[in-house]
Amino acid sequence: MKMMSHLYTHLLLIVVTCGLASVVLAARHPPVNPHGGVLEEQEADRVIGLPGQPPVSFDHYAGYVTVNETHGRALFYWFFEATKNPQKKPLVLWLNGGPGCSSIGYGEAEELGPFLTQKDKPDLKFNYNSWNKAANLLFLESPVGTGFSYSNTSTDIKELGDTIAAQDAYMFLVNWFKRFPQFKSHEFYIAGESYAGHYVPQLSEVIFDKNKVVSKDEFINLKGFMVGNAVLNDETDQKGMIDYAWDHAVISDKLYEDIKKTCDFSTKNLTDICTQNLNKYYDVYSIMDMYSLYAPFCAEANSTSRRLPVIQGIAPHLFSKIDGYHRAPSGYDPCLSDYTNTYLNRPDVQKALHANITKIPYPWTHCRYVCPPTTWNINRGVWCVLSNYIDEMI
C-alpha cells in the first residue's frame, strides 16, 4: 500500500478508489502535560510488553475512552506516534467500515498500521509502509459492539445507526484529546474505507458544526478527510460490483445481462430471480478472492479469511442478503485474517493492550453485526453531506 503523500495539505482531500524475542518493550518517553506534570491516564494506556512485537523507537498506547457515562459506552483505540518527530506530524484517525468492522483487525494489523500479524514467529512484523511514517496514527473500533468496544446498556446496540456512531466518535475525540493534550493543536485528518464512506464525512460534519459553538478547550483542528473504496451511494455501488466482475471476466456475458435485466438496485427488495442470479455471481467467488482477483485463496479449513458472517460495507443493503456476500478481504497473504483473529483473542495480547477489561461474553472478531441494517443509512447517499462540507471548507 502506497503512503499517502498529501497529509499536510490544508485543503479538503477526498480520495475515492475502488528470530526476535517474543516480548519486546516499547520505547519509554513519559508524556508531559503542556501545563506541567506527567499524564497518569495517558501513561496507564502505554503499551508495554506486547507479545511478538518487533523493536521500535516510537511509543504506542491502547485502551478505552468513555463516550457515554450514563449508558456505560466505551470505544477502544490503539494509537501510534509517528516514527520520527511526532510533535511536528499531523494526526490521522483511521476508521474501517462494516458497519461493525474493526479498525484494529483490518486497518492496523493487516493494512496500514505499524504491526502486521503473520503466521510464523514472532507474531508481528513491522510494516515498512506504515502510515505512521508520515503521521501520528489513531485506530478506533467504532461503533460500540465492534471489536473490543462495548456498552453496558444492551439496548444501545439495537439503537445504533449513522447518527449515534458519529456522535460517539465525536465524544471519543473530545475525551481522547483531554488524555493526549499534546496532540490537540496538531493538524487533524480523518480517513477510512468501505462504510467509512459514511462514517468519515458524517463525523467531519459533526466536528465542523460543533467547532462553531464549543469552547477553545473542545475545538478540534480538523483540516480534511480521505475516503478510499467508499460506500457513498448504494445503487451505484452495487451496479459497480457487477460491472467490475464482468469487466474482469469473472462472470459470463449471459449472467451479466441476466443480472442487469432482473435486478433493480434502486429498490430495497430483491426478486427471487434476481437473488438466484446474484447467488450465481457469488458462486465464482467461492474459489477466488473478490477483493484481490489475482492473489492466492486461503484454502485452510474453517478459515476466517474464507467466509465471515458479516457485512463488509460494499453495496451492503441488498447484497447482504446474498449468501456469498459475507466475506472479508484477505490481503496479500490470503490467510492473514486467521492470524489476526488468533492473535487478538490471546489473553496475554489483550492484557498488554488493556483490552477486554469487562470480559465481554464473546470472542473478538473482525466484524460483528452491530444492529439491524434498517437503523443505518446504508441505502442513502452521502453526497449532500459531502457537498455541504466542501462548500463550507472552501
TrEMBL record:
GO terms (BP aspect): proteolysis
Keyword terms: Carboxypeptidase, Disulfide bond, Glycoprotein, Hydrolase, Protease, Secreted, Signal
Protein name listed in UniProt: Carboxypeptidase
Localization: Secreted
GO molecular function list: serine-type carboxypeptidase activity
Keyword Metal-binding: no
Signal peptide: 1-26
Similarity field: Belongs to the peptidase S10 family.
The keyword DNA-binding is annotated on this UniProt entry: no
Pfam families in UniProt: Peptidase_S10 (PF00450)
EC numbers on record: 3.4.16.-
Cellular-component GO terms for this entry: extracellular region; vacuole
SUPFAM superfamilies hit by this protein: alpha/beta-Hydrolases
Source organism (scientific name): Lithospermum erythrorhizon
InterPro entries registered for this protein in UniProt: AB_hydrolase_fold, Peptidase_S10, Ser_caboxypep_ser_AS
